[in-house]
Specification:
By secondary structure, the chain is an all-alpha fold. The chain is 77% helix and 0% strand. Helix 9 packs parallel to helix 11 and helix 11 runs antiparallel to helix 12. The longest helix is centred in the middle third of the chain and has 28 residues.
């Protein structure tokens, strides 16, 4: 009789067993989160978890700390740590919210500089390759420039300068690609606008040479060959012996002949 019952209800029994295992595992997972005797211990544990790259558990610790200690002296640091954990887990939206919260609610705190820098990181994490819209790259660039202006003595200053250069290069690449597209379409006025934007807005990027070649090709197409040749000669001189310099030589030879 028992055997018949088991055979008739085998599927249900399997599902019940699976649910029991899942509940047991969930209980074990919850038990893995260390208990903290004090709120100070909770923050210390969260820092230790971050050092061990256990970001998900650190997040749970920090969430609890922030809820329980809204008026404490260390809550701003906890919010920054929470945002950093979100960065490490690629949760860009949460990271953005937390860093903006620090800058809004604790602008004079010791944590504001770190929040300002990492807010740029959160924006840049959402940016797309150069062929796509660069909205988030531009947001990151503005944020890092703000960080450099407002916190000139912070320890991540040199890193922010490198990140600014990365963001500028990506935006300049997008402008060059767009200029080249208009050039292929024989839309010379917009092509010139995009190439000139690189020269005017991002003069320290490697993409300047490409923009100068683009402007030379625009000049050549509309019959201003002398100016085109002069632009190409400048590229040859400034980037002598490089691939872009050699390209300028080839383009000039083609225009002259």
């Amino acid at each position: 009789m028992i055997r018949d019952f088991v055979r008739r209800h085998a599927r249900g029994l399997v599902l019940l067993a699976a649910a029991a295992v899942a509940l047991a595992l969930a209980g074990c997972g919850a038990g893995l989160l260390p208990s903290a005797r004090t709120e100070t211990d909770r923050l210390k544990l969260a820092r230790r978890m971050m050092a061990d790259r256990d970001y998900m558990q650190a997040i749970e610790m920090l969430k609890t700390y922030i809820v329980n200690n809204g008026g404490s002296a260390d809550v701003d640091e906890a919010i920054v740590l929470y945002g950093e954990c979100a960065l490490r887990t690629r949760d860009w939206a949460t990271a953005t919210v937390e860093f903006e919260r620090v800058l809004r609610d604790f602008p004079e705190s010791d944590s504001a500089a770190a929040a300002s820098f990492m807010l740029g990181e959160a924006h840049f994490g959402q940016s797309r390759p150069p062929d796509f819209d660069q909205e988030y790259t531009e947001k990151a660039l503005v944020q890092w420039q703000s960080y450099l202006a407002n916190y000139p003595n912070h320890w991540r200053h040199a890193e922010a300068e490198r990140r600014v250069a990365d963001a500028e290069a990506r935006i300049a690449t997008k402008l060059v690609h767009t200029g080249n597209l208009y050039l292929k379409l024989n839309s010379f006025k917009p092509a010139r606008v995009y190439f000139n934007r690189v020269l005017d807005e991002f003069p320290n990027t490697p993409q300047v040479a490409e923009a100068m070649i683009g402007l030379a090709l625009v000049d050549a197409r509309i019959g201003i060959k002398d100016r085109a040749i002069e632009r190409l000669k400048e590229v040859e001189t400034r980037w002598k012996g490089t691939p872009i310099g050699n390209r300028a030589i080839a383009e000039r030879a083609r225009i002259e002949h």
